[in-house]
Amino acid sequence: QLQASGGGLVQPGEFLRLSCEASGFTFSMFVMGWYRQAPGKQRELVAEVVSGGKTKYGDSVKGRFTISRDNAKKTVYLLMNSLNSEDTAVYYCNAKQQILNRDYWGQGTQVTVSS
């Protein structure tokens, strides 16, 4: 199970931090990621982080967003700086493990950037 939190309404240029707490699986074995889906658009990768800390970002968020994980707390975070209206979307937490063929999704949290 993945429980995301931290979404909300912010003004352009502000920041938000999303959290996703995991349970029911061995967190450290999974690649953890954040995806987002804006109205009328396909779901896209925002960022992902492997257990050892290596990260990957979508082109539109590089330099503004930072993903991190705490294996002891079974939690993944997404710090989003310099938000703009194009970041408005529902953000989903994801956990995947290729060898075990597991792919879990959280319920989504709404982020709205508007003045």
Structure summary, number of beta strands: 11
Q: What is the overall number of helices?
A: 0
| Shape assignment | globular
As residue ranges, the low-confidence spans are none
Overall average pLDDT: 96
Secondary-structure element series: EEEEEEEEEEE
- Main beta-sheet annotation: 7 strands, mixed
Strand content: over 45%
As a whole number of angstroms, the C-alpha radius of gyration is: 13 Å
Give me the secondary-structure category. Answer: mainly beta
Distance between the termini: 34 Å
Give the helix level as a range of percent. under 10%
Oligomer: single chain
What is the element layout, followed by pairings?
Elements: E1 2-5, E2 8-10, E3 16-22, E4 31-37, E5 44-49, E6 55-57, E7 65-70, E8 75-80, E9 89-97, E10 102-105, E11 109-113
Parallel strand pairs: 2-11
Antiparallel strand pairs: 1-3, 3-8, 4-5, 4-9, 5-6, 7-8, 9-10, 9-11
Please, could you describe this protein's structure?
The protein is mostly beta strands and 115 residues long. It is 0% helix and 52% strand. The protein is built from no helices and 11 strands. The protein has strands at residues 2-5, 8-10, 16-22, 31-37, 44-49, 55-57, 65-70, 75-80, 89-97, 102-105, 109-113. Strands 2, 4, 5, 6, 9, 10 and 11 form a 7-stranded mixed sheet that branches. The protein has a 4-stranded antiparallel sheet with strand order 1-3-8-7, with no helix packed on it. Strand 5 and strand 6 form a beta hairpin. The protein is globular, with a radius of gyration of 13 Å. The N and C termini lie far apart (34 Å). The mean pLDDT is 96.
